[in-house]
Amino acid sequence: MDIFSRILEANKGNNSDSFCFDDSEISDMLLEGDMAFPKTRNAMKCLNDYCKWPKSPSGQVEVPYTIASDFYDDEKAVIENAMKSITAKTCVCFVLRKNQVDYISIENLLGCSSAVGRSGGKQQLSLSVDGCVSHGIIEHELLHSLGFHHEHTRSDRDQYVQINWQNIPQASAYNFQKKDTNNLNTPYDYSSIMHYGRTAFAIQYGKETITPIPNPSVQIGQRKEMSNIDIQRINKLYECGEHITHI
């Protein structure tokens, strides 16, 4: 299906333990195909910002992580490069876990999946080596872990896309239900890395489940790189201040 489009952009980088700039099995309980039920609300709307990752005294948002040992070095490099891409454009940085209580555990499980936002303690982020270890998919899952739902389920989506319920199996209908989201005063983004493709979960091959409106020819569902609006939202959600990239 569209969300698992195979886009491999594996530019090998160094294997540093931190991606901060130096400036002093998928379970039965998955949402939208790749979102595990969080223990808390969506990080975009949660009590006392608990679902957001905290800032360090330097103003950076540090997200501790571990990577399972069964990934090959080249697979680990692709994962780390996706982290670096986020760090380069936001105040979020990924640091190798030492003794932090809350952290992301990146594991080779079944499928691609993540909790939404910081759920507390060890939270698994699944990147199966059979189709999930590519740059765009990794960024997609990391953005879930930072607190973002899919674009096609945001609260104002009906102004921008038509959901073709007749082409969606009843068992998959929950994948298209709207969420009560804080859209951070940003426009609907067809090019978001968090947007599903037009035939995702289709009842029959080639049938459209999502059609852009008013222009049905607009492309949706890319898994290459975060869009400018994706970057803007991260910076808004985490109040990146001087770290905000000018786009």
Task: Describe the protein.
Its cofactor is Zn(2+). The protein has 247 residues and is α/β, with parallel strands linked by helices. Among the domains are: 103 residues, Collagenase (Catalytic Domain) (3-Layer(aba) Sandwich); 68 residues, no CATH class. 16% of the residues lie in helices and 15% in strands. The protein is built from three helices and nine strands. The strands form two sheets. It has a seven-stranded mixed beta sheet, with helices on one face. Strands 8-9 form a two-stranded antiparallel ribbon. A hairpin with a 3-residue loop joins strand 1 and strand 2. It starts with 29 loop residues before the first strand and ends in a 10-residue tail after the last helix. The N terminus is likely disordered.
Helix content: 10-25%
Strand order within the widest sheet? Answer: 1-2-6-7-5-3-4
* Count of discrete alpha- or pi-helical segments spanning 4 or more residues: 3
Mean pLDDT: 83
Please provide the ordered H/E string of secondary-structure elements.
Answer: EEEHEEEEHEEH
* CATH hierarchy, class of the domain at 32-37 and 50-146: Alpha Beta
The CATH architecture of the domain at 32-37 and 50-146 comes to 3-Layer(aba) Sandwich
User: Are there runs of 5+ residues with pLDDT below 50, and where?
Assistant: 1-16, 21-32, 37-43
Please summarize the sheet with the most strands: 7 strands, mixed
Percent strand equals 5-15%
Keywords: Disulfide bond, Hydrolase, Metal-binding, Metalloprotease, Protease, Signal, Zinc, Zymogen
Domain Peptidase M12A: 42-241
Organism: Sinocyclocheilus grahami
EC number: 3.4.24.-
